[in-house]
Amino acid sequence: MCSSIISDADRAQAEYSAARGRLLRAVADLASSEAWCGDGAGNLPAWLCARWQISYRVAGELVREAEALRALPSVAASLEAGAISAEQCKALTVLCASDDEGWLETLDFWSLPELQREARKKVARELERRDDGVFFRMEHTSDERYMRGAFQLHPEDGAAVLKAIESRIPSGTPLLGWDNAAARGLVELCAGDGNPPTVVLNISADQSTGLLDSGGIVGSETARRLSCDARVQKISTDQLGNVVGIGRTARSVPPWLRRAVLLRDGGTCAFPGCGRDRYLECHHVVPWSKGGPTDAGNLLTTCWTHHKLLHEGGWSVGGEPGPHVTWLRPDGSPFEPRVRVLLDTS
Question: Rounded mean pLDDT of 128-152?
Answer without folding.
Answer: 79
